[in-house]
UniProtKB/TrEMBL annotation:
Record's protein name: Succinyl-CoA transferase, subunit A
NCBIfam families per record: pcaI_scoA_fam (TIGR02429)
Record's keyword terms, sorted: Transferase
Pfam families linked: CoA_trans
Amino acid sequence: MAGFDKVVTSYEQAMQGLKDGDTIIAGGFGLCGIPEGLIAEIKRKQTKELTVVSNNCGVDDFGLGILLKDKQIKKMVASYVGENALFEQQLLSGELEVELTPQGTLAEKMRAGGAGIPAFYTATGFGTPVAEGKEVKEFNGRPYILEESITGDFAIIKAWKADRYGNLVFRHTAMNFNPIAATAGKITVVEVEEIVEPGELNPSEIHTPGIYVNRVIKGCFEKRIERVTTRN
């Protein structure tokens, strides 16, 4: 079993090998299903010049947003940036390079990268600034643009449960970008709420098989709510 055991006991071990200039693919959607402790470790390490690929960049003081404060992120590839004032400030000042990508296209870029597919055609974005400089081809009378897939040096993921072999189960909407991001990293690190022994997870409930996972760490999560909404 020792050769298959992917559990590490410290965040330093979990993010070992991360270096300046790396590309990080991060799971999560807003503050839902984000690997809080792994992001905090990147902050602690003060790794710089990072390219980060994620649906968005958290908020000013939580999630990926904490990496903006010390300007650790050089480039952000995202589909939505509306909840982060510091992100907007750095974008407008030219301190942060931003590649805005339609949400479905971003998801497919990760999925395709994890599947070994270098590029794909999509109709989404044709006729908009998203399509500028990209190859256009017509299929059945409709124009499509060529989008390149994405892979990263690291993928940082949040899951509900994992066994020691790295098989993962996600919970409800925290699944979001995590399963596809998990496939697209050269090194995939997963922060989980619970670690169980091999054989305790029913094979039919596993969302991401351990073949994609390199390291697993048990985290402690704040699970902050991005925007609290209540009934009148």
